[in-house]
Write a structure and sequence with these properties.
Distance between the termini: 77 Å
Number of strands: 8
Strand content: 5-15%
Oligomer: single chain
Strand order of the largest sheet: 1-2-3-4-5-6-7-8
Order of helices and strands: EHHHEHHEHEHEHEHEHEHHHHHHHHHHH
Number of helices: 21
Structural class: alpha/beta
Largest sheet: 8 strands, parallel, barrel
Shape: globular
């Protein structure tokens, strides 16, 4: 399939600094390990470098003892010529609940101010009301907004429905449309049909994000490119495959041979991958990177359950000595998802559906025990479900309580100034306050560690040296 007329350009978003290592090593990649390669990555010719958002913020504070804001500033300084990209969960930001509009606006403003160029904004339910504040703010700040569709399969998630939402996001002013296949279940034919449907509806560049979990990704990308996709997410090859993205170098090589233009520098790609190889090997040696994470698992194609969700179900059942119920839980999971109006199985919905399916099986009675998260979902705290929730489930979850009318974030009071006042003497800037609002307990511990480290440095600095 040589391109004989106008050469089609396919651009690449490199994910090794965020989603690739998040998928394979739970985001345990401190800045110090990759700092030296950033100036080289800056010359590769990527469309963007995904390096922030997702779980990075939480993990920096919780496990790496890093200030995520300083990490971003460091990357900005080291890669002045690259578009730095982040993933944002709409009204959830990077946390696990909805935040007031004032916090969403300030967080987006500070993200751009500290170095972010591209913000990929999605909502777990594809409720576009939940991305509106973040989108408007990002556009106002001059960032490139990638309006994102959480891909899933159900009777209500049709080509027409996805294309309509893409058009609505185009009307909101986004710069690109991203299709986010977080479970890696999109087949080549589904990609070809969906990208074609979106392309026929909008005039914007279209991005496709997927994972290699089920082994579909390389084929899916090729068919999507045939349908006209403009940008794909890939990972430097030593951090690719399995639950990560397809390999950057492999697709670059194949696409160039097929006659596409990629804009990537082959020599730089090799230098980047050679740098990360020993890092990958060290993680394997210490056991943090399980080789199984880099293998293909086709169960998600059978059960329509993402790989990460399957592993969570196994953990839950093992903890309760109930692995003999595994098949029952797998059968129950799509039934719960249907009862809840077919939410896409992405954080936090995948956890909610999985926990509820497990509860239903282990209790011996469906919805005898309903989690507080599912009750909040039924109340409307996460947005509008794609299809109506089963009325019987609603009754069991809420009783006579009425669901939230309108957008849940509209019911939330401003919290920034009060929190800033409470943190006086501890928080050094507005970014510290935002970190605390998203992850209070985790950030409090980080503040204590930071203070102890600073006192230690001061102590050693002022102690006179004995002659």
């Amino acid at each position: 399939m040589k391109k004989t007329l106008e050469t089609q350009k396919v651009q690449f978003t490199e994910t090794v600094l965020r989603d690739a290592n998040q998928s394979l090593i739970a985001t345990r990649l401190p800045y110090s390990k990759f700092a030296d390669i950033l100036p080289t990555m800056d010359k590769a010719g990527y469309y963007s470098v995904e390096c922030w958002g997702g779980a990075v913020f939480d993990v920096c504070l919780r496990f790496l003892n890093e200030d995520p804001w300083q990490r971003l500033r460091n990357m900005r300084k080291a890669m002045p010529n690259s578009r730095l990209q982040m993933l944002l969960r709409g009204q959830n930001l990077l946390g696990y609940k909805h935040y007031p509009d004032e916090i969403v606006r300030m967080f987006v403003e500070k993200s751009v101010e500290n170095g972010i160029d591209v913000i990929r904004i999605f909502d777990a339910l594809n409720d576009l009301r939940n991305i509106e504040t973040a989108t408007k703010t990002a556009i106002k700040c001059g960032a490139t907004v990638s309006g994102t569709l959480s891909y899933t399969q159900s009777p209500v998630h049709t080509l027409e429905a996805f294309a309509k939402q893409a058009k609505e996001m185009e009307n909101m002013g986004v710069a690109t449309i991203c299709v986010k296949d977080m479970a890696g279940v999109m087949t080549p034919q589904e990609a070809y049909d969906l990208i074609g449907a979106i392309k026929s509806e909008v005039k914007l560049p279209v991005v496709l994000h997927t994972h290699c979990t089920t082994g579909m990704a390389f084929m899916t990308y090729l068919k999507a490119i045939e349908a006209g996709v403009d940008i794909i997410d890939t990972a430097s090859s030593c951090f690719s495959g399995g639950t990560s993205q397809p390999a950057t170098e492999t697709l670059n090589y194949a696409l160039k041979q097929l006659g596409y233009e990629t804009g990537l520098d082959d020599a730089v790609l090799k230098e980047v991958n050679d740098f990360f190889k020993p890092i990958r090997d060290a993680y394997i040696a210490e056991g943090l990177l399980n080789p199984k994470m880099m293998a293909t698992d086709t169960d998600a194609l059978t059960y329509k359950v993402p790989g990460g969700m399957l592993s969570n179900l196994v953990s839950q059942l093992k903890a309760q000595n109930a692995m003999d119920k595994f098949e029952e839980v797998l059968i129950e999971t799509p039934k719960v998802r249907e009862d809840l109006g077919y939410p896409p199985l992405v954080t936090p919905m995948s956890q909610m559906v999985g926990v509820q399916a497990t509860n239903n099986v282990l209790s011996g009675e469906r919805y005898k025990n309903i989690s507080k998260e599912v009750k909040a979902y039924c109340r409307g705290e996460y947005g509008t479900s794609p299809a109506p929730i089963n009325p019987e489930v609603m009754k069991k979850a809420l009783g006579d309580e009425k669901p939230v009318e309108g957008r849940f974030a509209d019911t939330l009071e401003p919290v920034f100034e009060q929190t800033k006042k409470e943190l006086e003497g501890t928080a050094k800037n507005d970014e510290d306050v935002l970190s605390y609002i998203l992850f209070p307990q985790v950030t409090e511990k980080y503040f204590a560690n930071r203070k102890a480290q600073e006192e230690k440095i001061v102590k050693y600095t002022i102690t006179p040296v004995e002659e």
